[in-house]
Design brief:
- The chain has about 150 residues and is mainly alpha-helical.
- It has 2 domains: about 5-60; about 70-145, Winged helix-like DNA-binding domain superfamily/Winged helix DNA-binding domain (Arc Repressor Mutant, subunit A), CATH 1.10.10.
- The protein is built from 5 helices and 2 strands; from the N terminus they run E-E-H-H-H-H-H.
- It starts with a strand and ends with a helix.
């Protein structure tokens, strides 16, 4: 059974096609959906591009050059390497703490808990937690040669 289906050729023109079966009809539906999706994507791109051009023309705005020089790239890469190396040493230092000190450091820094919260959770007075924290920090500083 032949059925007439509208196929969108452009935004202004479409044609009527006679389909032979349901598969052809579904194919044309899918093509029309893809056409609409692509049209929407093109409009979004055009709107953004035109907006930037309009701002530039009307107000003299220019996009900033965000490219980096070779020296800046090298400096950033060096900083990243130093940061990775420090983090590795820090984790090694934390591994050398007692279990209790490691737990206090973890809860304080990674779980953002106060000494009182940690003490309550571990069933000890918060001053004991504070002492454990201070001893852990002192040990980490000594291992990392930070004073």
């Amino acid at each position: 059974m032949k059925k007439k289906v509208i196929y969108k050729v452009t935004t202004k023109y479409s044609i009527e096609i006679e389909t032979e079966n349901i598969n052809e009809e579904k194919l044309i539906e899918e093509l029309n959906k893809e056409f609409e999706r692509q049209l929407k994507q093109d409009k979004t791109y055009h709107a953004r591009t035109v907006s930037l051009e309009y701002l530039n023309q009307k107000y003299g705005f220019e996009l900033a050059d965000t490219s980096l020089s070779e020296d800046e790239i090298d400096r950033i890469e060096q900083q990243e390497l130093e940061k990775e190396e420090f983090n590795k040493k820090l984790h090694e230092a934390i591994d050398k703490l007692t279990d209790k000190q490691r737990k206090v450091i973890y809860m304080y820094f990674w779980e953002n808990k106060t000494f009182r919260q940690i003490g309550k959770e571990l069933g000890v007075h918060f001053t004991t937690i504070e002492e454990s924290y201070n001893a852990a920090i002192k040990k980490i500083k000594k291992i990392l040669n930070i004073f």
